[in-house]
Structures are given as C-alpha cells and as structure tokens.
Amino acid sequence: MPIFERPPLETLMPARERWTPIYLEHGRIEVDDSSVKWIGADRTVFRLPVASLSVLMLGPGTTVTHAAMKACAESNTLVCWVGAEGLHFYAAGVTPTHDNERARRQAELACVPSKRDAVARRMFALRFGPDVPVDRAAVKELRGMEGRRVKALYAELGTKYGVTWKGRNYTPDNWDLADGINRAVSAANAALYSLTTAVVCSLGYLPALGFIHTASMRAFVLDIADIYKPETSLVAAFETFGLNPQATEDDAIARLKFHIEDRRMLARMPSDIEKLLEGS
After folding, report:
1. The model's pTM
2. What is the DSSP track for 179-192?
3. In the chain, what is the greatest distance between 2 CA atoms, to the nearest angstrom?
4. What's the confidence (pLDDT) of residue 96?
5. What is the DSSP track for 84-118?
6. H helix intervals, the chain
7. 196 to each of 84, 114, 256, 268, how far by Cα in Å?
C-alpha cells in the first residue's frame, strides 16, 4: 500500500493555475503519512502541497527521498536542481503539464519557416519597441539590428551609471582575465538564464527549440531571456558597479533579484511567452 496516493489526473490543477515557484535549500524533503514534508536544517517543518506547485526549486544542501520524487512525478510537479538563491540551473525532472500541447505548438511554429519567422519578429518587436517596424525586414537583418542595439545599450548604461565600458569581452575558460563589469554582466545573465529555464520548463515548453537562437540546447531560453536583459541583468550589473567599482559578481546578482521582483518578471514571463506563440 503506497504512502502517497497518486492523485487522479482530473483532480490535478492545470499548470497555468498553479502557485509560483518555491525555492528551498539546506533541508530534506520526504513523504510522511500521506503528504510531502520539508524538514529544514533550521528545524523548520511544513507540508508541501506539491500538486499545487508550479515548480519546486532545490538549492544547495537539499536532499530528497525516492518516495518524495515519486510523489512529485505523480502530481506533475516539476523539480529543478539549482544553485544558491535559484540563480544557477543544473537539471530538471518531469514536465508539470498534463499533456504536451504547448510543446507540440512550439514545435509546429519552429518547424514551419513562415511561422518561425513570425514568432521571431514578435520577439524583435518586444526588444525594439513600437517605433521600429519589424514586418518588412528579414530575420537576418533584424539579428543585425539587435546586435547594434545591444552594443549601443552597453555604452548608454556605462554613461548613465558612470562605468568605464570597453566592450563585451570575456571567455568562460579565462574568467579572471575579464574586467569587473564584464564578469558582473556574465554572472547576472547566467542567473537570468537559470530563472528563465525554470519558467520555460514549468510551462511545458522545450528549452532547446528556439526561434531567433537555434544551435544552443537552451535556444528558447536565450530567446526569452534576451527580452528582459535591458531591464534586469544589464541594469543590475552596471548599477552595481556604478555604486561601487569594487563590487563583486555576487553583488550584481543580489541587485538582479531586486529588479526581477520589482519588474514582476516571473509573473509577466508566462503571459509574454503565450502571446509570442499565439496567432501564427
């Protein structure tokens, strides 16, 4: 007789109606009686309504029992393994959606060139704003326009926050050779990618199937995250170094958390993705 009874499919809450993500660190998740329970290292104990959660984000120092993972899977609850404060994404479990409708819709749009370009144009429209028409330009041309826009944005942010900007220059294999602002931008962007991946996976979309980006295994994540960079990760990095030239990457990530919450990004992102993928 199983401890945690698998809920009937018709009783599970749809992914779009589930609660926002819950982040946990330094503790243990296990099944106790008929529910999933969190036991924190600080002796905090509470039950997790896993069938109502959109995603369970497990941070450092977290352990989870086999029975608890089985309960999450049977409740269609996504479990992600992430870094401290959820700002690095390592792995994810089963998708929380009841079916693959969103994945099939995304695949259909990505595989038909005219539909793929239509979605890409809507993504560029969000980046450029209403004053820049995108309907008549080829997607390749729009990519070039985006590159020039971002380059100008870096210079603008450097001037606004008093940060010396010599261009985007870093390599992951030689992290310490990059200057402080480049390391801050990279760290803040990586954190933004992590949160975006959790949202994309929790909604049942395919992280690897992009419309502007194509080759990366997280092409769709990059497509979506790039929309929010100017108001979150880039502002956080330049603002942090403008206030303190000796700031670290962790300081930039702490500032990023403020901008993500202030801009209500986790609430806006699911709605924005739905609008981008509809109407093609």
Report:
1. 0.79
2. -HHHHHHHHHHHHH
3. 66
4. 61
5. GGG-SEEEE-S--SSSSHHHHHHHHHHHSHHHHHH
6. 66-74, 101-111, 113-128, 139-161, 180-202, 219-228, 233-243, 249-262, 265-276
7. 15, 26, 13, 11
Give the other-Cβ count within 10 Å of 112's Cβ.
12
Amino acid in the structure at residue 169: N
In the numeric block, the tokens 């080759």 are attached to 215
Question: Reduced to 3 states, what is the DSSP secondary structure of residue 64?
Answer: strand
Render the burial of 92-106: b for 16+ CB within 10 Å, e for the rest.
bbebbbeeeebbeeb
Each residue's pLDDT tens digit, 109-153: 999 999 999 999 999 999 998 888 888 889 999 999 999 999 999
> d(Cα 248, Cα 234) in Å, to the nearest integer?
15
CB atoms within 10 A of CB 270: 18
Q: Which residues pair with 36 in a beta bridge?
A: 31, 48
Q: Which residue has the tokens 């806006």?
A: 268
Start-to-end C-alpha separation, the chain: 48
Other CB atoms within a 10 A radius of the CB of residue 215 amount to 7
Structure tokens at 216: 């990366």
Residue 188 and residue 236 in contact, taking contact as beta carbons nearer than 8 Å: yes
Minimal CA–CA distance to 55: which of 15, 101, 11? 15
Q: How many CB atoms lie within 10 A of CB 257?
A: 16
List, run by run, the mean pLDDT of 10-residue segments along the chain (280 residues): 59 58 91 89 91 86 93 86 81 73 93 94 92 87 93 96 89 78 92 88 89 92 96 96 90 91 88 85
What does the pLDDT read at residue 1? Answer: 46
